[in-house]
Design goal:
Length: 758
């Protein structure tokens, strides 16, 4: 009981913060219908209580980090469940692939029950609480959403607000004649009022579904059908419609949908005498839905699909004090991108981005290159008029160029809803085919293929450079081509949008590991871009952004700055190599190569780009490394000098083991003599005289010593000679004595011999 009281208190606190504004707006919209408002509040509490606990925990977590969806780690992917993996269970099995591709949220294209052959690609909903049976069940969706949350992914679902299928229960009961349910749509007894509407209301599909009304045979009345005859417009002037549709929205949120895409939101309020587009009541409804979501399921983000010119898109953000949509489709930049691809001229893009960059950073756009829908040429023709560009003629040029009807164009697109009278056709095709990859592979032209792949990668680099949430259309990560098989399907052949709604090729996806293949080159290049974007805070939506003048109409320059990081991003839309004549003074690093690169007169190859990053931290690091290098060099020099002095002192004390070469000795003597001469010249006269006198005295003493030495030497020589003479005399006397003795001995011996003989 205490736990329930706590949960109820959580709901009450959220409601209390918004109750006054909710009540005021609701009363204004529905003429003080208190019963309807009380039902609305009870519905909110009921849907809050029905919300699973794990989602309530997610609500609390995201309430604490309200800007979680603004992270530079967010990357979306749009996909059709059946085309991507057959059914919802198949998508669950393919989650590892999505993780490998860097995807953090998946937008599952319409998967609610809709009649075959009258589904408008799933946008004619027959039951907002049932999944199309061939795709699975609502339980399968809830299980997929749960797995996504565990993997750090979010899930986006379309909520088709403007209309229901003619097979919806409300429509069936209206056809059965029940007035209550006819009041949920726009029924008229005759064509008088519908004809008045047609005077001011444009047609959505003038070729495939002309008119805004259809005849209902069952009741003999006219019903409003702005899109297709099988899609009946809902009457939001009826509070029951608003209450019940909002409950359907929260039912989907309680199954695990994190992001709700409000389809065709500008059309939801109808008023006679207007164009039934972007009326003030629409903004009131969206504001109420935003507050209601903050009460029931704060983890949910509202994504508005507003396919209008910029001046009509921005109001759907609301104000900073009273916000409406969390995120809006950046339709105009998408269309301008393909205009730039066709014209090779970036001036309109600079003008368009300049308007986006001037908006408050709290306004968040969903950026994309291609999606499930066509490309409508809702460009700023007021700006283009100054260049002599006519709207009708320019649309024809764009469509012809991107279908490959112009010389030199390798794009392969198809028209959608061609209106020859107004020249207002739209265009369809995958990113790869519009970039020329399809034509290059068909021709087997390797040079063309390389260039087309560069363009495909460059466009995604441009996508990731924009502030907001980048979303890739499924198949673009491997460069998937157009699927012309829809021409053979009677349910599809009159809708050329199916050219880019083909089945995902898992055989081609398997080639993503082959870096030589088209699939591998694109997959790995996009993955590198995604990782680089995640690693650098300069890609956060909070970054300052501006246009960098390149003085080259073929090269777009974008600057970004955040928290000590500055990015210079340059994109060459020309089939020729170009130069961006920029002159940024800092030291930059090329994020794609990791090498140092100057941001001055930067050369960009055809259809290529450059991401140049300056980082204050890197600059400090470089300065620190340079200072450390200088200190190390100084220490080394001091050490070498000290060692040299020590060696010199040691050499002076010891005899040289290895005598210095004669030439070096001569040089040393010359240097020493020069030094002595300079010192002598510098001495005072008295000191010089004393030195001369001292030198003379020293010379005299030396002479006396030499004379005494000579005298000693002479005396020694005389004594030596005397001794020699005495010794000679003694030797002579000895010799004479010996001779006499010998003679006497000889005489005595001779006498004895003679006497014996006698």
């Amino acid at each position: 009981m205490e736990e329930r009281a706590g949960l109820t208190r959580e709901f009450a606190e959220r409601l209390e913060k918004r109750l006054d504004e909710l009540k005021w707006l609701y009363a204004e919209l529905y003429h003080n219908d208190e019963n309807a408002f009380r039902y609305f509040l009870s519905m909110l509490e009921r849907m809050y209580e029905a919300r699973p606990e794990e989602l309530k925990a997610l609500d609390r977590e995201r309430e604490q980090s309200a800007g979680w969806y603004r992270s530079n780690e967010v990357l979306g992917m749009m996909l059709y469940t059946n085309c991507f993996a057959g059914n919802l269970r198949g998508v669950r099995e393919k989650l590892p692939y999505l993780k490998e591709a860097g995807v953090t949220y998946i937008h599952l294209m319409p998967l609610l029950a809709s009649p075959k052959g009258r589904s408008d690609g799933g946008y004619a909903v027959a039951d907002f609480r049932q999944v199309e049976p061939e795709l699975g069940t609502m339980e399968d969706f809830a299980a997929l959403a749960s797995d996504c949350h565990k993997s750090g992914m979010s899930v986006c679902l379309d909520f088709v607000m403007n209309h229901t299928s003619e097979d919806h229960e409300w429509a069936r009961r209206a056809r059965a004649g029940e007035k209550e349910f006819q009041d949920r749509y726009f029924f008229f007894d005759n064509w008088n009022i519908p004809n008045e509407f047609d005077r001011t209301v444009p047609q959505v599909f003038p070729t495939t579904a002309p008119g805004n009304f259809s005849w209902c045979n069952e009741v003999g009345k006219v019903v409003m059908t702005s899109f297709y005859p099988y899609q009946w417009d809902l009457n939001y002037a009826n509070p029951t419609v608003f209450n019940d549709m909002t409950e359907n929205l929260f039912f989907l949120c309680n199954q695990g949908a994190d992001i709700i895409r409000l389809d065709a939101v500008p059309y939801i309020w109808k008023s006679l005498g207007t164009d039934c587009r972007n009326l003030p009541q629409v903004h009131t409804i969206v504001r109420i839905m935003r507050m209601a979501a903050e009460i029931v399921c704060p983890a949910t983000q509202i994504l508005g699909e507003v396919v209008m010119e910029p001046s009509k898109v921005v109001p759907y953000f609301g104000t900073l004090e009273k916000p409406e949509c969390h995120i809006l489709y950046n339709v105009t930049t998408m269309a301008t991108t393909w205009h730039t691809v066709a014209t090779k001229d970036v001036r309109l893009m600079k003008h368009q981005l300049g308007q986006i960059f001037a908006l408050p950073k709290q306004y968040l756009f969903l950026n994309y290159l291609r999606c499930h829908d066509d490309i409508g040429w809702g460009l700023d023709y007021g700006f283009l008029k100054q260049f002599g560009i006519d709207e009708v003629g320019h649309k024809r040029f764009l469509n012809d160029c991107l279908r490959g009807y112009f010389y030199g164009s390798d794009a392969r697109g198809e028209l959608y809803n061609d209106d020859p009278r107004l020249g207002d056709a739209r265009l369809c095709g995958t990113t790869a085919s519009l970039c020329g990859i399809e034509a290059a592979e068909y021709e087997g032209n390797v040079w063309k293929l390389d260039r087309a792949i560069r363009l495909h990668i460059m466009l995604h680099a441009f996508l990731f450079t924009q502030s907001g949430v980048p979303v890739i259309y499924s198949g673009d990560e491997i460069g998937q081509l157009n699927d012309y098989g829809y021409h053979n399907d009677p349910y599809k052949w009159d809708d050329s949008r199916y050219i880019h709604r083909g089945a995902f090729s898992w055989d081609e996806a398997a080639l993503r590991t082959d870096t030589e293949s088209r699939q591998g080159r694109i997959f790995n290049a996009l993955r590198k871009l995604e990782i680089t974007r995640r690693e650098h805070p300069v890609f956060l939506s909070a970054a300052d952004t501006w246009i960098i003048e390149t003085y080259n109409d073929h090269v777009l320059g974008i600057g970004r700055y955040y928290d000590g990081e500055k990015l210079v991003a340059l994109f060459n839309f020309s089939p020729q190599d170009e130069t961006a004549w920029v002159n940024e003074p800092e030291d930059y690093t090329d994020l794609m190569t990791g090498e140092s690169r100057r941001a001055q007169a930067v050369g960009i190859p055809a259809f290529d780009f450059a991401w140049l990053l300056w980082s204050r931290e890197d600059e400090w690091k470089r300065e620190k490394e340079a200072e450390e290098a200088r200190e190390a060099a100084a220490k080394k020099a001091a050490k070498e000098r000290k060692a040299a002095e020590k060696k010199k002192a040691s050499d002076a004390k010891k005899p040289e083991k290895n005598p210095v070469p004669e030439a070096e000795k001569m040089l040393d003597k010359e240097v020493e003599a020069k030094r002595e001469t300079e010192e002598t010249v510098a001495k005072k006269p008295v000191e010089r005289a004393e030195e001369v006198k001292k030198a003379e005295e020293e010379a005299s003493e030396a002479a006396a010593e030499r004379k005494a030495a000579e005298e000693r030497k002479a005396a020694e020589e005389a004594a030596r000679k005397t001794v020699e003479a005495v010794m000679k005399a003694e030797d002579a006397a000895k010799k004479a004595g010996k001779a006499a003795q010998s003679k006497r001995a000889a005489s005595g011996t001779k006498g004895k011999k003679k006497g014996t003989k006698k």
